[in-house]
User: What shape does this take?
Amino acid sequence: MVFFGKAQTAKEENNKQTATEIINLKITNAQIKSYAETQEMPSLQYLADQLCEDNEMQYVELESKKIASLQKIYVKEAKSIFTKLKEYPYEFEIDGHLKLASINGVKVADNSSNMQELEKRIQELETSFQTAKTSYEANIASQQAIIDTLNSKVQKLEQDGKIDYSINNERLVGKWYDGSDMYELSVEIVAPTTTDGVMVENKVDLSKYNIKECIIVGGYYKKTDSNNNLPINWTTTGDRLMRIYYSCQDKTLRISTNNAGASGLQGYVTIRYKK
Assistant: This one.
């Protein structure tokens, strides 16, 4: 009987420790979530709201020993809240500093180390976030500066008359942000003949240009009956569309449509790429 009593006591202490760790984890998760959302530590009301939405909780109340539902409570000036897990017979009191104040009415020792550890983790998280943000902004600024420089060089070359925009003429227009040369090529295209709803594709062989990576591709069709220029990548009502893309697999420019109104339309495509 003595052995049985000791086993029961050990089991009880183990269950209480497990339940306490679960509650502490829920408090910590609420603190981290609040800081991620507002960059501020949560209030007792915020924690109560989080626990009320937690399916593992049996109740969250302002008074001890009051079994109730998980309806939202309003903390207002209350100094603490009382809550209980469904799976464990322990009621936990959480004070305004979001620390465990008592378990089943028995006061617990003040353990500030958990709070200090959390504040340290929050500080590390904030530092990491600021570092990542600064790096991202610097990267964006660097890429924009490269693009601005490229555009400036292209404009100067255009003004100097050194860029030949004739069809099928490959031209070096600058460098991409990774330092590699960027080329440009314009080709004439004809939309495939089709009926509405049937996707048909034409190909333009670009293998002789040794394109390694496509950067930008775009162009227009000229619709002769209305004298309008239509972008190649577009969609109309009824899921009718025209599109274009470069296939690295067989080095072709592919023009496809399921729009009968686009059949046979002539146009051009300009592609920028790396070798």
